[in-house]
Every structure is written in C-alpha cells, then in structure tokens.
Amino acid sequence: MEELKKLIDVLERKGKGSASALLNYTDTTNLETRLFQLTQSEADINEADLIAMLYNAPAKQDAFRMLKSRVKKKLYNQLLFLDTDNEKLMDEFGSIEIRCRKILYLADALRWSDEALLAEQQLRKVLKIAQDANLTKYEIDGLEQLRILLAEKKYTRKEFDKCTSRLEKLYSLHEIEKEADKRYYDIRFDIKLGVEASFKFKQKLQSYVNELQIFWDASESNLVFKRYHQLKMIYYEVEGDFVSFISYLNNIFSLYNSGKIHRLYFSENFNRFMLVYVYLRAKQYREGIEEAEKLKYRLENGTNNWFMHLENYFHLAVHSNDYIKAEEILTEVFTNKYFAELKSAAQERWILYYSIINYITGYSLPSFSDRKLKHIPNDKKGFNVWSLILDFIVVIEKDQPELVEREIDRVRKFIAKYLTSEGDARTKLFLKLLQITGREYKNTKVCKQKGSYILNKLKQTPVAGYAYAETEIVPYEQLWEIILQKLENKI
C-alpha cells in the first residue's frame, strides 16, 4: 500500500490529470472529441469543412488551429498505451525495447520528483529486463540512473562500487556493439544504392564480416552475433555460394539449439525460411521441399509470412518438375480465406504463378482466369518479365501471325530498354530464344537448330546474385523445353 499511496501523492501534487492529457471518447459534446470522430469517419474531409461543422462559422481558423494542436498532443500521449505486447503489431524484441524505454522514463520522472525509492524500484525492474534480454544500452541507461541515486540519495558504498564496476564492463561492450551496428548499416545503405555487384562492395563486405566475427568471438555479445549473421547471409548471397550458405545455416542452428545464441537475436522461423530459399538457389530441391513442408506448419496459417513461405515452396516444386505439388500449393493459397487480405502486389504474383501453371499443365481455377495485373507491369525487371513471357507464349498458342510479330517487336524493345546490365544476361538470352520461337513456331526442328547456340549460352550463364532477388518462376531452360514440346504436340 505504501507504493500506491506515494504514487497517488505524486500525481495529485504534480500530475495534470487525464482530462488534460487524454481524449475522452465518450464526451461527444467536447470539440476535441468531435474533431477526432469527424476526422476518423470522413476520410476526404478538409479543414474548411471541419471548421464549419465544429463552429458553425467560417472565420475560426485560429481557434481550430489551437484545437487541432491540443488533440494532436493528447493523441501522442495515448501512443504510450499502444498494445506493444501484441505479437501481431510488434515483434517481441521491439516490445521489450519499448517496455525498457517506458520504465526508464518513469524512473527518470520519479527521480526528478524526488521519489528516490519509487525510482529505484523501477530501475531494478528495467535492469532485470535488460539483462535477461542482453540489451546492453538499456542496462547502461538503468545503471547510470541508479548510480545517480546511489551517489545523491542512498550512499551505499558496496552497491555504488558494484554499479560502477558493471558500467565499466558494459561501456566497453557497448562500444563493440556500436561498431557492429555501424558496419551493418553501412552495408545496408550500400545495398539501397544498388552497388552490391561491384568488386569494391564485395571487398568491403568480406572485410566487415571478418571484423564482426572477431568482435563476436571477443565479446560474446548477442547483438554483435546478430549483425555478423545478417552480413554473413548477405555475403553468401552476393557471392552466390549457396552450398556453403546451407552449411553455415545448419551450423548456426546447432549453436542456437545448444543455447549459445539468445532467442531474441535469432528468429528460428525466419532462418528456416532462409534455409528453404537457399536450398532452392542451391538446386537441392528434395531437401528444400522437406524443409518447406515442415516450416509450413510452424508458421501461422494465413499470415503474410505463411504466404511468402509458400511462394518459395511453390518455386521448389516447379524447379523440381513436381507440378502436382505446385498445383496443390496453388489450391491451398487460393482457397485460403486470408488470400483476399494480401496486398494487391502479392495477390498478383500468385495470379501470375497460376497463369504459368495453367499454361504448362492446364490446371484451372475459373475464378482467377480473368484477373488483370495492375502492379506487376510497373516492375520492369522483376515479375513483369514473366508477364511479358506469358503474353508471348499465349499468342504463339493462338497461331495468329500478326499478333506474334507484334510480340516479337515488343520483346525486342523491352530488351533494348530494360535489360542492359550484367545481371540481366539470362533473361536477355531467354527472350532471344522466344523471338526465335516466334519466327519459327510452325517448325520446332528449326526452332531447336536456331536456338541451340543461345540455349548453350543460357545453360552456361549463372543465375544473378543478390541484386536480382526474384527467382525464375520456371527455370528458363526448363520452360524452353516445355514450349517446344507444346508446339510439337500441336503440329
């Protein structure tokens, strides 16, 4: 009861009260509440309309500006009451960070209100959370506040010495963690600039990975491990060394399972997701499909992560020529009640996958046969290529020479305008094969002869690395054989 009494006393003496800090949603006569409700319910309403509705007079701009300012302040105050423990809104790590910040704020406010005992209780609480979560920064913040209390209020030499000793160790550790952060965000910025294919970038990345491994070995910091792990994964993908990537991930899983990596710094589901993707890139399809099937049941059905994982699973099925499995995945996706809640771009990718499998196997879902693509055509180097390919092969199927000529010209212009970098080599070669098909589609033997040189070049050209993250929906060599077989059957 003593703690409760002290809190009430502090708030009565120094608190503003909820009326001045928070909106009262139930008081519909209050101008602040009415502004909130009108703004919430009328999406396209402008300030002039709001002033007229609130004041029944047009010349109230100054009053409205002050009203709007008060409402914004109260809404910002109410951000303190967000449900940060809800895993659907925020991950556990972010939730713990915000909890630490809130408690540190409370401790600071109590300390400045001359409530040393209450402040210390809050600090002990945040120190326990920060230590359990390996959050060096927040442990430092908590200990620094505690040191002030011990020096100015409590005067306990043993506790003070223990506090300062711990701080000295944490300061050294925090410097290493800041260096790790610095290198990680430097690389992330470079990737945003699109320089990851350059020799200079690769050298810097390798240097950073080596440095962070040394930092991790020296500090055993989980944050340093996290940054090292993130850069190491980028390194393997940039290098295209997916076999080593698989071995690395499996070693990290062993460390995690043995308790050497804190769970907050290593998402097992995300890294399983990455392992599935890496099996795909390494062309280890059997292992990838086994891992993908297990992960499907670890993820919450119908979430964005679940649908993203099924995209990788679908690619594994197609790349391994298991079209029955691919059709099963498509059926599972399109019949999922949450499919309609996906962002339009994600829905369009699945519709594109459906259209391609529909061409290859005849798999049919009538409700999706007429869906138009709106977002994919804007993604010139990504999935739009597959929309272009699909348009081309559908036109060939129709055997309409004028339309075929139009598509040949469209492909030619697309290559010249968009496929200009080294990473576009495979797509450019395949589109050239398509052009040959367009000219010779009535004679598959001639198609094969004229396309053999380009096909050999395609087989010798590796899949592009990190900058071209989109996986070939159907390997180009595989799709070329399918197109020729279909044409042959038709003839």
Largest sheet: none
Average pLDDT metric: 89
Q: What separation lies between the terminal Cα atoms? A: 90 Å
Structural class: mainly alpha
Q: What percent of the residues sit in helical stretches (DSSP H or I)?
A: over 70%
Q: Got a strand count?
A: 0
- Round the Cα radius of gyration to an integer and report it: 30 Å
Shape: globular
Strand content: under 5%
Q: Helix and strand string, N-terminal first?
A: HHHHHHHHHHHHHHHHHHHHHH
Instruction: Flag low-confidence runs.
Output: none
- Please, how many helices? 22
Helix/strand layout:
Elements (H helix, E strand, L loop, with lengths): L1 H13 L3 H4 L9 H11 L5 H9 L5 H18 L13 H21 L3 H17 L3 H19 L2 H37 L5 H21 L2 H18 L2 H16 L10 H14 L3 H14 L5 H16 L3 H12 L9 H18 L22 H15 L2 H18 L6 H16 L3 H17 L15 H15 L1
Describe what is shown at a glance.
The chain is 73% helix and 0% strand.
Would you give an account of this structure?
Helix 8 packs antiparallel against helix 9 (157-193) and helix 21 (444-460) packs antiparallel against helix 22. With 491 residues, the chain is mainly alpha-helical. It is globular and about 90 Å long. The longest helix has 37 residues, at 157-193. It has 22 helices and no strands. It folds into four domains: 2-81, no CATH class; 183-266, no CATH class; 271-371, Serine Threonine Protein Phosphatase 5, Tetratricopeptide repeat (Alpha Horseshoe); 379-490, no CATH class.
